[in-house]
Amino acid sequence: GREMKRLTLFALAITLIATGFAAKTPYQAVLQHSRIRGRTHGPNVCAMQKIQGTDKKYFTNCKQWYHRKICGKPTVVSYECCPGYEKVIGEKGCPAALPLVNIYKTLGVVGATTTKMYSERANLQEEIEGPGSFTFFAPSNEAWAALPTEILDALVSNVNIELLNALHYHMINKRLTSDDLKHGASFPSMYQDFDVHIHHYSNGIVTVNCARLVKTDQHATNGIVHVVDRVITAITNNVNSLIDNDDDLDTLRVDLISLLREFAGSGSYTIFAPTNEAFEKIPPNTLTRILGDPVALKDLLNYHILKNLHCSESIVAGTPLETLQGTVLEVGCDGEEMTINGKAIVTQRDKLGTNGVIHYVNELLIPDSAKTLLELVEGSVVTTASKLFKDAGLTDHLIGFETLTLLAPLNDAFKDKSLAMTPDLKKLLRNHILKEKFSSKSLYHGQELETLGGLKLRVFVFRNRNSSVYVNRVPVVETDLMATNGVVHAVDVIIKPLRKS
């Protein structure tokens, strides 16, 4: 059995290599993978992963396939005809190409029957049956059903203007296959040439205005149809004006807008915009301190901005994404919820502007560099030490203006020790705080470091072990957690004075 399994994997690898060269875009690569997974069921069968309890389906890559999870939720595999093919009674798989008909009829073929009905009502039928070459991003039936009733009523009660405009915004006056939908591209729609914005992610997901393409590349005699999972609306504002006009972002507005002006024209960003509620959750003195410290404030704001544009639909698993502040945020999802650093704090998503996308968060994201030493250790792996530093009356040092280095023992270092505060323990803790800020790069062999308690510690650098830097023979295990007023290095055990030799 094992040998057989090996051979199948080997055969799979060969097929992937052989066909891999044809896979141009990330979407094509994922489709290819689904095709290979489905081919035992016959020609042109694709394996889809469906999130249990929802109607969301995905073509998937190897990783998702083996985890059998999307957004942390288990998936069921369904075998369906690959885009463009259909079943034939009595034959295996999906041997027949779907009929080549005009776009109006194709909407029925791909199951976008609500879009087809609205096209008829809005007198668009004649145009999409006629000559030309169009791309139609057709909202699925579920997409129409998900629209708030009042929006749908407004569209449908005004079919020859509003509904027609809405449908025209889903159309482009030329034929675009999924290969033509390149990341970051935009195309003028047939509604007053307002652009639609394409994002084509490395995991194979393609979005138009943040709506995901769920069926692609259905060719028609006069164009091509892609089914999308949302009804999209025209984007006319940049993110600055979106933020400027939203009362829910009052607290943040002035600072964020001035920051965004600096790079308004230079690319597309993702902004996690903290709502007023997010600011209300922060202790007032912390907020006052950050607002009064230009460096910390800039770090705080930059930590809410990702270097690239990520629609929520592009996230199917936790991914570390780089912020303008230089560190990463873990952006993921849990079922329907979008998460940041594991917390479901995103309240509204995909407010798209011409130069970026905004997701609202109801908690402030504070990078280490905007925290004091005390705030930093309280939220990190050295919680026992942080409590002891406070008990020992060292709080003022850890929130003050002097820059210090904290050598914080990991929680395990205190496992069998009494944590009652004594003069000896107080003295011991003072000797874990250095009088200056030393990053790990500035530590060298034989260096002497002076502590708040007056003890001299010695640095040893060994090149041959996992942890190369030792202080008084104690290994430094996690380094360079930078706070506003210093740096934290975690050590394995409690540091003791060296015996005189």
From TrEMBL:
Main localisation: secreted
Instruction: Identify this protein by name.
Output: Transforming growth factor-beta-induced protein ig-h3
Q: Which InterPro entries match?
A: Adhesion/Biosynth-related (IPR050904), EMI_domain (IPR011489), FAS1_dom_sf (IPR036378), FAS1_domain (IPR000782)
Describe its partners and assembly state: Binds to type I, II, and IV collagens.
Query: Its biological function?
Result: Plays a role in cell adhesion. May play a role in cell-collagen interactions.
Q: Which residues form the EMI domain?
A: 42-96
Q: Which residues cross the membrane?
A: none
Any one cellular-component term (Gene Ontology): extracellular matrix
Q: Which GO terms describe its molecular function?
A: cell adhesion molecule binding
Q: Which PROSITE patterns match?
A: EMI, FAS1
Per its UniProt record, what SUPFAM superfamilies does this chain match?
FAS1 domain (SSF82153)
Q: Which locations, inside or outside the cell, does it occupy?
A: Secreted, Extracellular space, Extracellular matrix
Identify the residues that the record assigns to the FAS1 domain, covering every copy.
Answer: 97-232, 236-365, 369-495
Its signal peptide is 1-22
Q: What GO terms in the biological process aspect are recorded for it?
A: cell adhesion; extracellular matrix organization
Q: Name one Pfam family in it.
A: Fasciclin
Swiss-Prot/TrEMBL keywords: Cell adhesion, Disulfide bond, Extracellular matrix, Gamma-carboxyglutamic acid, Phosphoprotein, Repeat, Secreted, Signal
Superkingdom as given in the UniProt entry = Eukaryota
